[in-house]
Amino acid sequence: MWKRPTKAPPAAKQSIGPAPPRSLWHAVSIVSNAACCPAAMGLVGTRFLSSEAPRLPLKHCSMSAVCRCSYHHHDDRRSLSRRSQDLWSPGPGGYGGEDRRRERGRRVTDLK
């Protein structure tokens, strides 16, 4: 038999869904394309956690009517890894002896 043509369901409205969750350490820094006020110059290169960042235009901005400052987003508040070599432990490659970690342990469960 012939199928009766059916109306297509109405197109679903496209809505902007919630933004993907950002990391706990998501940070922003203040940047400007043009000459900026002394208040912004003092904060250039400083990273703030997103929740703690100052609002733009800054409170003491002398160019608030034409302020061109904006945020630059970063995944982490730290700019460089601060992990340095520990002077008291040899770290990787510091021990020159035989690696014996492949042997069984001394626990009762290791002997079985």
Uncertain stretches: none
Number of strands: 3
Indicate the mean pLDDT: 75
Largest sheet: 3 strands, antiparallel
Instruction: Note the total helix count.
Output: 2
Share of helical residues? under 10%
| Computed structural class | mainly beta
- Tell me the radius of gyration: 29 Å
> What's the end-to-end separation, in Å?
73 Å
Strand order of the biggest β-sheet: 2-1-3
The run of helices and strands is EHEEH
Strand content: 5-15%
Overall outline: flat
Task: Write a structural description.
- By secondary structure, the chain is mainly β.
- The chain has a domain at 32-74.
- Helix content is 7%, strand content 13%.
- The protein has 2 helices and 3 strands, in the order βαββα.
- The protein has helices at 38-41, 108-111; strands spanning 27-32, 47-49, 69-74.
- It has a 3-stranded antiparallel sheet, with no helix packed on it.
- The longest helix has 4 residues, at 38-41.
- It is flat, with a radius of gyration of 29 Å.
- The termini are far apart.
- The model has no long low-confidence stretch (mean pLDDT 75).
